[in-house]
Design brief:
heterodimer; A: about 400 residues; 2 domains; two-stranded parallel ribbon; about 15% strand; B: about 160 residues; mainly alpha; about 0% strand
Chain lengths: ~400, ~160
């Protein structure tokens, strides 16, 4: 699972890969402990059956070794991420963050101690199930995470993050499956995080659908409808929610995971694209796009017309086609063992976006699979958060 | 690092009796160091939540966790080989060793559960952090008890196969 993800075996392994890499450090400890326990139990057999005894040692150490690879790859992840930031923000990017701001950030990309104890949370306020749309036989809600301290005293300065959940355009929902701990962490940094719902496609089936999908968001939709729902949220955000929750409309980010990452890309890169000019509210300034394990384009069958019938429609949901030099910087999370969104396609997306003049940082996490940012304090999650908070701060200051 | 871990374990487990002629005073030092390290880990984990850790203390804490975990394991292996299990105290130490391994397994599972459930909206933060804290503390508190018990039993000549 660590080396190939669910790509090779398919089926249930696609779901299992989501848990493997981010629990591998604890599994390493578990394997060693179980091996020692077995050796202790079989100590009396060491003389009469030495082969059994040493086979257990060999198997235990081999499995432990496999579980160690993700941890051992962490320095590579950090070096790679630094290079990406150097290219996007210049060699001096770390020094451009004032020390009083850095005090709020993780001091280092990875603390082994935080891996077990989690990253301490700052005090925040969470409002859940706020209605923003009723119609088409669905109701759409959002949860909002915001700081208790005045946002102006925090690195986020009230910047708005529109957070779009994963689920293959046909399942999932806000909350649990959209990484609550990341939303809470960012709220503690002074960001106003809107974790929003959008209409889900009820006629599409996918092997690894997210559980607990609410019925009230399901309908006969296509991806165009989903983007329209997000556009409706942007309109209400500008007219009402930004003021209600203390959000800063001059600094807005689209963030999303998997299918939500694709939609975040459409919002963040397509807000100035002619096709979408009536979809998203123009009275907000997009400062960055944060797609995690993003498909680069919409599957044709989820659009109203296919690529041959209507190439303009397809292009309007193709992230590379939407990109232009005026677009904000992009920060991508991608695991190299992701069996659902392959690393090769994301590397191509990264190259194509840069070729179009968009500053793009691709953070590659060796041995990580799909949705491997679930445990925020893992060796994957900590590195991600370290660079995410710096990306958010650096891009706020870019006009 | 993998090679080092494998080498260390093979050396410790396979050739333990042959290559390590351990005197009581060294075992005493090991138990005392372990007792301090386990208790220090508990103390630093409390500071981690209440005041946060800067880069130096955080790094030292990270090293402390790794070293104390390996030393705790080493003490379990050591007692397996060097305790006279037929003596009442030796039997108790042996059982405590089993208990320590069982606690470790449960602690790891609690940590995995707690860390994953931090994202679950259907669990309260109290429950989420309880799993993490019980998992973390149980390991180091048990480690402290185990090292203390060994320390106290060191003077009992009939318990040990060491000089």
């Amino acid at each position: 699972m660590l080396f190939f993800g669910g790509r090779a075996l398919k089926g249930i392994t696609i779901v299992i890969e989501e848990f493997v890499a981010q629990s591998s450090v604890l599994m390493l400890a578990l394997c060693i402990t179980v091996t020692i326990l077995l050796l202790k139990l079989l100590a009396s057999r060491r003389i009469n059956h030495p082969k059994q005894y040493y086979v257990i040692i060999l198997i235990g150490l081999t499995i432990s070794g496999f579980n160690a690879v993700s941890l051992l790859a962490t320095p590579y992840t950090i070096i790679n991420a630094n290079q990406e930031f150097d290219e996007a923000f210049g060699l001096n990017w770390e020094n451009s963050i004032p020390s009083n701001v850095q005090n709020y950030f993780l001091p280092t990309p990875y603390f082994f101690s935080s891996h077990f104890l989690s990253i301490p949370e700052r005090e925040i306020t969470v409002d859940t199930d706020v209605l923003f749309y009723t119609g088409e036989n669905i109701t759409l809600y959002f949860d909002v995470y915001r700081p208790i301290m005045p946002a102006s005293q925090l690195p986020g300065n009230g910047s708005i993050i529109i957070n779009l959940h994963p689920g293959a355009w046909m399942s999932g929902g806000k909350g649990t499956w959209n990484m609550i701990s990341t939303s809470k962490y960012l709220a503690g940094q002074g960001y106003v995080v809107f974790d929003i719902e959008y209409g889900l496609i009820d006629w599409f089936e996918y092997g690894a659908e997210a559980p607990d999908t609410p019925e009230y968001v399901m309908g006969n939709f296509t991806i165009e409808d989903q983007v329209r729902h997000i556009g409706i949220f942007t309109n209400r955000c500008v007219s009402e929610f930004a003021a209600t929750y203390g959000g800063n409309l001059d600094s807005v980010y689209f963030m999303g995971r998997s299918a939500g990452a694709h939609l975040a890309g459409v919002g963040g890169l397509g807000y100035n694209y002619d096709f979408h000019n009536t979809t998203f509210n123009p009275n907000m300034t997009i400062k960055g796009v944060i797609p995690l394990y993003p498909p680069s384009a919409a599957p044709e069958l989820l659009l109203k017309e296919n690529r041959t019938e209507n190439p303009d429609l397809y292009n309007a949901y193709d992230l590379v086609h939407l990109a232009d030099p005026q677009d904000p910087p992009v920060l991508i999370f991608q695991g190299t063992s992701d069996g659902q969104v392959w690393i090769e396609s994301v590397e191509v997306l990264d190259e194509d976006l840069e070729a179009k003049g968009v500053a793009c940082c691709l953070l590659k996490f060796p041995f990580a699979g799909h949705a491997n940012d679930f445990v925020l304090s893992s060796n994957i999650g900590q590195v991600w958060v370290y660079y995410l908070e710096r990306f958010l701060y650096l891009t706020q200051t870019i006009s | 690092m993998n090679c080092y871990i494998i080498l260390i374990y093979i050396v410790i487990i396979k050739k333990f009796e042959d290559i390590m002629i351990i005197r009581k005073k060294y075992v005493k030092y090991l138990c005392m160091i372990l007792l301090i390290m386990n208790l220090l880990s508990v103390l630093l984990s409390i500071l981690h939540y209440f005041i946060g850790l800067n880069i130096i203390v955080g790094s030292l804490f990270s090293i402390l966790i790794v070293v104390s975990w390996f030393l705790n394991i080493a003490l379990i292996i050591f007692t397996e080989y060097k305790v006279v299990k037929s003596s009442p105290t030796g039997k108790k130490i042996n059982r405590l060793g089993y208990g320590f391994l069982a606690v470790q397994i449960v602690a790891i599972l609690l940590l995995v559960g707690g860390l994953f459930l931090l994202n679950a909206s259907w669990f309260t933060p109290l429950l989420q952090y309880s799993l993490i804290l019980i998992g973390f503390f149980s390991f180091f508190v048990y480690g402290a008890i185990f090292s203390y018990f060994n320390l106290k039993a060191l003077d009992l000549r009939e318990v040990w196969k060491i000089e």
